[in-house]
Amino acid sequence: MRTKWFAVFAVASVWFASYTYAASLSPLQRDAIYEAYFSTFHNALRNLHSYDKSSVDGTKGYEMYTPVGQYFDVAGFAPYDSEDDAQLHAWYCHSDAIVFATNVSSQSYFGGNEGTIFTDSTFVVDEVIKGQPGAIRAGFPADVVRIGGTVEDGADTLKVMVANRPDFEKGKEYFLLLNKPNQPVFQAWHTSDWVTVEVAADRFHPSMKSPFGIMPGESPEALRSRIDWLAHRFACH
């Protein structure tokens, strides 16, 4: 059973850390975040204000779809017992940290010359499955950034949506695979832009089928056992 960390002091500290992080981002830092993940789209994104208003909700912006490459190529999946195991071990090896964490707050802001939106979310880490000592710790906050979100700017409500990917919700627990880009000004972790994996009632509830090799209806305890078994059996390359 994971220990919950919801002391008043901890929550207040996390909220303050999230607010000061997002509020202190300079244009240079935001451009660094943009360049870190979306350099291939540089100068290709229209300013969000230039889009027509949606007839559904009156917002301006666009929707993104899951790109090819969100799964590792494990054709044949040998020497693993299944494709799910091959995917899980690949994601394990390519992640700097893997955690269970509870969302405390989220704040969205412009990136890419107002051509896209990022959301910075602060979590309290409940349990660390993988991570360098001191880099991420249970009971402490972690800032996580990914593309998408909504920003009110003047008379316009601007939105960047990711298809079939719910936003993080305050108070809910999530399974996060995290990476730290090699950017001097980049303070936050990055997690998948394309999938949200909620944890509730001792089960995973992913927004897409079998993300990261998680099996449908799998429990966190079963996943921990699979990760331990794979990490001891196969080396990362």
Ordered list of secondary-structure elements with their pairings:
Elements: H1 8-23, H2 27-38, E1 60-64, H3 83-94, E2 97-111, E3 116-130, E4 141-147, E5 149-153, E6 156-162, E7 173-178, E8 189-190, E9 197-200, E10 203-206, H4 220-233
Parallel strand pairs: 1-6, 4-8
Antiparallel strand pairs: 2-3, 2-7, 3-4, 5-6, 7-9, 9-10
Structure description:
This protein starts with 7 loop residues before the first helix and ends with a helix. It has helices at residues 8-23, 27-38, 83-94, 220-233; strands at residues 60-64, 97-111, 116-130, 141-147, 149-153, 156-162, 173-178, 189-190, 197-200, 203-206. Strands 8-4-3-2-7-9-10 form a 7-stranded mixed sheet. The protein has a 3-stranded mixed sheet with strand order 1-6-5, with no helix packed on it. α3 packs across α4 (220-233). It has a single domain (26-233), classed as OB fold (Dihydrolipoamide Acetyltransferase, E2P) (Beta Barrel), CATH 2.40.50. The model is unreliable at 3-23 and 39-43 (pLDDT under 50). With 237 residues, the chain is α+β, with helices and mostly antiparallel strands. It is built from 4 helices and 10 strands.
Short key terms for the protein model shown above:
single chain, 237 residues, alpha+beta, OB fold (Dihydrolipoamide Acetyltransferase, E2P), 3-stranded mixed β-sheet, 10 strands, 30% strand, globular
